[in-house]
Amino acid sequence: MGDWVPDIADLPRLSAIERTVLEAIDEEETIAFHRGLVRIPTVNPPGDVRQAIAWCERPLRDSGFSTEIVATDDIMPNLVARFGNENGPVLGFNAHVDVVPIGERGAWRHEPFGAEIEDGRIYGRGAGDDKASVTAQVMAGVALARSGVPMIGQLIVNEVADEEVGGFKGAKFVSEQAFFTPDFMIVGEQTFNGISLGEKGSSPTEIAVRGRTAHGALPWEGANAIEAMAEIIVALRREYWPVLATRTNPIFHPSSGSVNLFEGGVKANVVPDSARVYVDRRLVPGEQPDEVVKEIETIALAVVADMPGISVTVGEVFPGGVATRTPEDSPLVSAMLNANTRLGLPTTLGGFSMATDGRFWARQGIPTIIYGPGDPRLAHVPDEWIGIDELLQATRAYALAAVALLT
Ligand SMILES: [Zn+2]
Predict the structure, then answer these.
(1) Distance from the CA of 370 to the center of ligand 1, in angstroms?
(2) Where does a domain end: 291, 316, 341?
């Protein structure tokens, strides 16, 4: 070991406390912890994470954290592990232990839950999303506790269930029940160890077209809902997507929309009387979910206006939310920037395109950033992997951020 990341002795400008904490990170233990975690299948659904949460709890408790399990569903425990002085500033680490299904097994070259190492990478479902962040957070916490450095604040390591299907029994439950109220929150997702100040919002929208059935041989007797929907989709592509591309923001990709689900039809010889699509709208700061629904509705109504027998309704599938963004001058951002500067990691500030559990804390007004090892494009695909170097760098970065805010 030791050739994955630069020697601590070679890192410039470390304070004595920073050096002590970084030296308390055990690289072999970190890799072994990660591989053990990947080998615990936590596929959601069904989302049973009992074993994985126990795996996270053990080293934290053994190093001096007080730990608590909070749950609204027996198979979906969430870990709240506390260390330090609760009367000082409170820094929260959050990441999720559940993973998406493996998809087609034949598409994988590596064992999906094998945690095989090849060329400095660990392969497996969840290797990046999100067990690399979980590992780095737990091991950073362990290092901080073991180092014995004096704490003026408290670190809370919160590893949760249920992120991959919406976070309702995980981060949403934990944040709304206020088991802890952090002053700063770092949510681990794949940012290449760069700093994301926030995440895009969303407006999950459904378009439903109603028509009239008829015998397929007598189409003029009916009102074809699928054909009407096709016109609406074309209108979105021609009139709406280009408008969204012009809604830009310095730290985010532009606003976007995509028709991601289609449902319709009755039978091969029946004119369809219904068709539905799901429109995946992602929002930049300034866009409001209810306005987005109205925009789509305006286009859809205009398309079907001259189609006899066709009607259309547009609505939210479930509540969306606005984009979130933590101010650049937050001490949290300075702490993370300081860590990345010390470690030679990216110091540009970005925004996260995907939804994360961070939105639950950010929308409560808690300064929240998204930061973690890995490439977001590898999430949810076959042969997902994490680089051992980026895993260890993230562990160091989380530890340095905790040092800056809590010691
Ligand atoms: Zn994730």
Answers:
(1) 11
(2) 316
Distance of CA 26 from the midpoint of ligand 1 (Å) = 25
> What's the distance, Cα to Cα, between the start and end of the chain in Å?
29
140 C-alpha to center of ligand 1: Å?
19
Q: What is the pLDDT of residues 270-307, one digit of tens each?
A: 999 999 999 999 999 999 999 999 999 999 999 999 99
Q: How confident is the model at residue 2 (pLDDT cuts 50, 70, 90)?
A: low
Answer yes or no: is 3 within a domain.
no
**What gap in Å lies between CA 187 and CA 210, rounded to an integer?**
42
| pLDDT at residue 99, as a whole number | 98
Q: Which DSSP helix (H) or strand (E) runs through 264?
A: strand 256-264
For residue 327, count CB atoms less than 10 angstroms from its CB and return exposed for 0-12, middle for 13-18, buried for 19 or more. exposed
Whether 97 and 131 have beta carbons less than 8 Å apart is answered as yes
Q: What is the dihedral of CA 142, 70, 172, 58, to 10 degrees?
A: 20
Whether the link from the prior residue into 130 is cis, omega within 30° of 0, is yes
Instruction: Report pLDDT digits (tens) over 24-44.
Output: 999 999 999 999 999 999 999
275: which strand partners?
209, 264
Q: How far is the CA of 357 from the centre of ligand 1 (A)?
A: 8
Q: Which of 299, 316, 333 is the last residue of a domain?
A: 316
Contact predicate 210/338, CB 8 Å = no
> Mean pLDDT of all residues in the chain?
97
Domain range for 335 = 8-199+323-406
Cβ contact 108:115 at 8 Å: no
Secondary structure of residue 12 in the 3-state scheme: coil
pLDDT in tens, 172-223: 999 999 999 999 999 999 999 999 999 999 999 999 999 999 999 999 999 9
pLDDT at 13: 86
